[in-house]
Amino acid sequence: MRVASSTLYQQGLASMNLQQGSLLHIQQQLGTGRRVLTPSDDPVAATRALGVSQAQAVNGQYATSRSQANIALAAEENALQSVTTVTQNIQTLLVQAGNGTMSDADRGSLATALEGLYNQLVGLANSDDGNGQYLFGGTRSGTAPFTQARGAGMYIGDTGQQLLQVDVARQMPAGDNGRDVFMSVTGGAGYVIKGNSANTGSATFGAVSITDPSDPLHGKSLKVTFQANASGQMEYSITDMDAPAPAPALAGPTAYNSPTRIELGGVTFNVTGEPGNGDTLTMEPAREAGTDMFGNLQTVIDTLRQPTTTPSDTAHLGNVLATATRQFSNSLDNVLTVRASVGSRMQELDALNDVGTNRDLTYSQTLSGLQDLDYAAAITEYYQRQTALQGAQQSFMQIQGMNLFKYL
């Protein structure tokens, strides 16, 4: 059988090209450390590796979200720690303001000190993360959540929370809105008593004690009204503040003699002094009795700046301070509860980081098994391919040298 010289050349070149291609492929594998360079190298492994790589990338995104959440929560914890200190300082000044030996000027000085704490509190409520994002603005973090106006209604943020996807099935709040921190109380805050600012008598109230939470009237907002009967004897009656007017009396009229222990709805408190005709006290669940720290503090500041020239003025001051003491005790409990929640979330992030790190290690090990090169086997194959290429080259050279004219 005759074989054309061109065919011999083509076959020789094809053999060398094949061996060179194989050798180049192994060189690329050795250079990259990867066994699978293209899907055609191992379609099954390449498909699996793609899925694992995507899962690892998503896991990395979760890690980034956890880092962002941790930074935000750490900033919130720092701010709340300062809020705790300011609130405790307010409580200390409230106790001092209740000292009966203080003059109007002394109370004015305390009002000035409380105003400074008020400004500190507003500043803390408008804390940001250093990048212009306000910590307590809810989902409206680009705008300062609290205005500088005095009194209630200062909050202009929203009631939402910024959620970050920190793991496969976990969205975590990366902060708390200002309403929940500065204008709320915990569920177990109890009752708050207030005296009407228009009261004319000298009656003051003591602390509320809860005696029977199962009482059918427990949790209702109650009003105590003092009224003189036809003979001039002071009496009091208790009505439901939420009932439509005219609200029927839930208790009374009952004769009042100082001091008197008033009990209804599973709660009790003492009243001392002489109430004026028509004076009222309200007893409400804490969540309905003024939970705005700024509004409550402003009420105290304004009251301390008023002179106390009559027994009624003194009673009004004492009642305002008693109410504020209870309110700020509730506010402090609420801030501490939020701080506990922040700490719990940060601990959860630590646990999720451990899980995420282990998951990433598993993904890396899986990818290594699918893609990485066995260097010993690859080097052996490299020398084999090199030998094969050399053989193909020598064979081609021998064929190239074969010529009939040498035998003529």
TrEMBL record:
Its main location: other. Transmembrane segments: none annotated. It is found in: Bacterial flagellum; Secreted. Coiled coil: none annotated. GO terms for cellular component: bacterial-type flagellum hook; extracellular region. The keyword Magnesium does not apply. This is Flagellar hook-associated protein FlgL. The gene is flgL.
